[in-house]
Design a protein that fits this description.
The protein has 2 helices and 2 strands. It is mainly alpha-helical.
Length: 89
Amino acid sequence: MEQMQTEIDQLSLVCQAMWTLIQDNLDISESELKERIVALDMLDGVLDGKMGAVKMKCPECDATMNNKIKHCMFCGYQPESGGSPFTGA
């Protein structure tokens, strides 16, 4: 449990550093950040303060896929890599 808290603390520090760099260099307001957080939170259809799975249709078999699973569980289709490194994180 202590290791998890250490990782959370480190991620919080990194997020704060990134936010202050963005704010200083790109002139983005805190309200814009909050709007983006809500928009990203709503990608899964639930405003709950966390990233949930985003459902999408498999382009091969039209089954419902989950972005946290790296392939279609029905036909085995695997999306090409090269997307966001944060997808499914």
